[in-house]
Specification:
Number of domains: 3
Low-confidence stretches: 1-64
Strand order of the largest sheet: 1-2-3-4-5-6-7
Bound molecules: zinc ion
CATH topology of the largest domain: Metallo-beta-lactamase, Chain A
Radius of gyration: 24 Å
Distance between the termini: 76 Å
Mean pLDDT: 86
Shape: globular
Number of strands: 12
Structural class: alpha/beta
């Protein structure tokens, strides 16, 4: 074995031995590639280079690769309104579950936080970023619905600082730990120390004034059994939660498509200037509602048609024709297949019931 390969091996082992998951390994490989090239140009001085490389790794690696750092950076979308925009991806060990939009609204009493993200670490890093930016402790937290990427950061706050619709609170109480365990399976160490903290307060639909800022809470359903939307009167910003997706295929594990479409109609009637979808880019028009509605209508109609043609679940998955505007949505194929699994059995039963 040459000096170079020995050196490579020792560094590679050290990087993985720190056990900080794929993010760190990804950063190590980005760090490591130029050094490997440098080594190849100076193979005759292996000992010296090996020592330099090892020293560089010791000096720079821990500082540049803080383990499980989400690198959260809020984007200002309106006066006093900020969003942490997640990636339009599935949960992975690379993204740590940062696939969701969270945000906050500044008030004189401190920030009103909307959703806390997928893990304790995310919630704590988000809170630190907000309090650093605003110079005040967070005033209150609203949770839009009981999906794990939206509420598993709750541990960053006391339970009585967190408000959600009653059904959302009940669902987190009943299923929160299972949802956390499942997410742990998908994103790994990012979830360390994460437990489901149940919001202690019930959200009341209607007006909410915090620190002089007037908001409106809308209690809807359809994406789940309870979906909270938040409207900021001053900037006409609408946080739609997962009732609205944009440029990313909607998820449907707990969906009631009819109720969801009715909720979209309600949101569409609001006089908003900016809309924050649960996943996907922020928009300044109704395009995200139009897209989500069109997708759900297509999904419902094509699956109903497949049941009437007598197709089984696998045949439906394979034979439904997908319009190009939906095929190009982020994570479309996986979400479509999951939706067929979620929705098709009940639709088959409904078609059989009507035929009798
Ligand atoms: Zn959701």
């Amino acid at each position: 074995m040459t000096h170079r390969s020995l050196c490579s091996l020792s560094l590679r082992q050290r990087g993985e031995g720190w056990g900080e998951g794929p993010l760190v390994r990804g950063r190590l490989s980005r760090f490591w590639r130029p050094l490997t090239l440098a080594l190849s140009r100076h193979a005759g001085r292996g000992d010296l280079l090996c020592a330099v490389v090892a020293l560089s790794g010791l000096l720079t690696f821990p500082a540049s690769a803080a383990p499980f750092d989400y690198g959260l950076h809020a984007q200002k979308i309106a006066d006093g309104v900020h969003v942490f925009e997640g990636r339009t991806e599935h949960f992975t060990r690379d993204n740590g579950g940062d696939i969701v939009n969270t945000g906050y609204i500044e008030t004189a009493a401190g920030a009103l936080v909307i959703d806390t993200g997928p893990s304790r670490r995310y919630g704590e890093q988000m809170r630190a970023a907000i309090e650093s930016a605003t110079g005040k402790p967070v005033a209150q937290v609203l949770i839009t619905h009981a999906h794990p990427d939206h509420f598993l950061g709750n541990q960053a706050y006391a339970a009585d600082a967190i408000t959600a619709l009653p059904v959302t609170r009940q669902t987190i109480q009943a299923l929160g730990e299972d949802l956390a365990a499942n997410l742990y399976r998908m994103v790994g160490g990012w979830m360390e120390g994460t437990e489901a903290r149940v919001p202690a307060r019930d959200a009341q639909p209607g007006a909410l004034v915090i620190g002089g800022r007037s908001l409106k809470l809308l209690a809807l359903r359809g994406h789940t059994d309870a979906d909270l939307a938040v409207y900021d009167e001053k900037t006409r910003t609408l946080f739609a939660g997962d009732l609205v997706f944009f440029q990313r295929a909607p998820t449907t594990p707990n969906a009631d498509l009819g109720a969801w479409l009715e909720a979209l109609d309600q949101l569409d009637r609001l006089d908003f200037a900016v809309l924050v979808p649960g996943h996907g880019p922020v928009v300044k028009d109704h395009a995200a509602i139009v897209q989500t509605r069109a997708y759900l209508k297509w999904l419902r109609a094509s699956l109903q048609d497949a049941t009437r043609r007598g197709l089984d679940l696998n045949e439906a998955m394979a034979q439904v024709k997908v319009p190009p505007e939906f095929a190009k949505l982020a994570v479309f194929r996986d979400e479509f297949q999951r939706s067929v699994v979620h929705l098709y059995p009940a639709m088959e039963l409904e078609t059989l019931r009507r035929a009798k």
